[in-house]
Amino acid sequence: MKIIRLLLCRVVLALGLAAGPSLATASDFVRLTDRDDLFGWEAVGRVDLDGQGFCTGVLIAPDLVLTAAHCVYDTQGQLIDAQSIAFRAGLRDGVSIAERQGARVVAAQGYDPKGGMTASNVRNDAALLELSEPILSTTAAPFVIHATGRAGDRVSVVSYGRGRDAALSWQRDCGVLWQNQGILAFDCSITFGTSGAPVFYRDGRRARILSLVSGGRVQNGEFTTAWGMELPSLVDQLKRDLRALPNPAASGARFESVGGLRGGNAGNRSGGAKFSTVGGS
């Protein structure tokens, strides 16, 4: 068994890799095409990397998008220039609810962009993209973070992915398999582009974000398990790190991309996904 990072590096979605089919069938997904279908999910959007690929992201504040850390690094371990990242809320068939350019981006301090798919990287695979302008909550209401999940919890995933990149897809029901040391495992269906997709928990109230898709286990050519991280303390630290950065609007400086391990602007991402075994700390 291996873990595959769901990293889209170029418009060629397969990245030169043969990806096995997902366990879910088409009937397990709802394509959120019409405005009525999208209602309530507008804050989930596509994170586009200047034509080089995409991930999924979700608003947790009018100007903050939560996504996977590995989505904002290139294969040289450098953060992508935040200004080359666009967030397209509720994108469906070329039309988005709102679209904003990135301003600043921070990745979790514990994430090592050159470290492969270790347990430490899975539990720290989160980043915050600050938008150049907020998106009104009346247009796309941000989601809040939920506490940690437990085995047996029922969840859902709203995401873009290979073969369904033009509109959001909602997998209405999947489950938490286990939780251990900041990592959660799900039986949700994943594929390239699902990276950073919110895993939602719902208990009669509006859905809350339990985790983000970081990667998945492949067995016999099929994605059998999705991996994510616990978010409450991780997101709190990301917000603190973002507040600690210089304010480019106030200083007149160019927007910068800053991460826990290294900072500065980066060129366009290139390369492919990595395979490794989850382990280590």
Overall radius of gyration: 17 Å
User: Biggest sheet, open or closed, and with what strands and sense?
Assistant: 10 strands, antiparallel
pLDDT under 50 segments (min length 5)? 1-27, 253-281
Q: Which architecture name of the domain at 34-142 and 231-265 does CATH use?
A: Beta Barrel
CATH fold name of the domain at 34-142 and 231-265: Thrombin, subunit H
Explain what you see.
It is built from four helices and 16 strands. It is mainly beta. It has a domain at 34-142 and 231-265: Trypsin-like serine proteases (Thrombin, subunit H, Beta Barrel). Strand 12 and strand 13 (208-212) form a beta hairpin. The longest helix is centred in the C-terminal third of the chain and has 13 residues, at 232-244. It is globular. The two termini are 19 Å apart. Mean pLDDT is 79; it is low at 1-27 and 253-281.
Q: What's a concise summary of this model?
A:
Helix content is 9%, strand content 35%. The protein is mainly beta and 281 residues long.
Give the SSE layout.
Elements: E1 2-5, E2 29-31, H1 35-38, E3 44-49, E4 54-61, E5 64-67, E6 85-89, E7 98-107, H2 119-123, E8 127-131, E9 154-161, E10 164-180, E11 183-186, E12 198-201, E13 208-212, E14 215-219, E15 222-229, H3 232-244, H4 248-251, E16 275-276
Antiparallel strand pairs: 1-14, 1-16, 2-10, 3-4, 3-6, 4-5, 5-8, 6-7, 7-8, 9-10, 9-12, 10-11, 11-15, 12-13, 14-15
